[in-house]
Amino acid sequence: MSGVPRVLLADDHPVYRDGLRLMLSSTGQVDVVGTAADGHEAVARALDLRPDVVVLDLQMPGLDGLSATERILADAPDTGVLVLSMHEDDDTVLAAMRAGARGYLLKGADQTEILRAITAVAGGEIIFGQALATRVSGYFSRLAHGGLTRAEPFPQLTPREREVLELIAAGLSNSEIAERLFLSPKTVRNNVSNVFAKLQVNDRAQAIVQAREAGLGRR
């Protein structure tokens, strides 16, 4: 990256999106090269414009922010994704990390914090808002002390499919999974079908047995 970071903003709320664009542009510290109103548009514009950083919300119509992140990084792995969301629960933050996001801020972060995060992500760093940093650090500390050396189960699954399998094993229905992951019911059905095919099982019960034998769904 040379000069100021080139940024794409993706959020389905036009007032917030346009306000953020004006605020960032007025600083002269970033170059807002485009905006997107939904996940599909975010992916298309990211692959067309090749920004240094995509700042996106998670809950967007058509394609959620987690899926958009995965698709962007599949074709443009050097792009940094910074999530800007109102959701602060651990599951959502960790799901964003698994999808490949390099940063996570809560909506309500001030101008200085957003600019600092964009610059850090553009430079290849991983950054979390002040409200989340302590919790994320504690999570990884617990993992380290737990000595997690076992290989991750079901390597044939994508991160999203593994996440869906985890929730299946925990007893959630498709509609509950859709609500938890901010996905459409159709997207969940497609992921469930992919999981069944890759695990070579015929139904939910068989998938649950395999998942629980591997230690999933016991939270």
TrEMBL record:
Domain Response regulatory: start-end pairs: 6-122
Keyword terms, alphabetized: DNA-binding, Phosphoprotein, Transcription, Transcription regulation
Pfam families in the cross-refs: GerE, Response_reg
SMART domains named in the record: HTH_LUXR (SM00421), REC (SM00448)
Protein's UniProt keywords contain Transcription regulation: yes
Superkingdom as given in the UniProt entry: Bacteria
Modified residues (4-aspartylphosphate): D57
GO-annotated biological processes: phosphorelay signal transduction system; regulation of DNA-templated transcription
GO MF: DNA binding
PROSITE patterns: HTH_LUXR_1, HTH_LUXR_2, RESPONSE_REGULATORY
Residue ranges annotated for the HTH luxR-type domain, each copy included: 150-215
InterPro entries attached to this UniProt entry: CheY-like_superfamily (IPR011006), NreC/VraR/RcsB-like_REC (IPR058245), Sig_transdc_resp-reg_C-effctor (IPR016032), Sig_transdc_resp-reg_receiver (IPR001789), Tscrpt_reg_LuxR_C (IPR000792), WalR-like (IPR039420)
Residues that span the membrane, as ranges: none
Keyword Transcription regulation part of the UniProt annotation: yes
Record's protein name: DNA-binding NarL/FixJ family response regulator
Organism: Nonomuraea soli
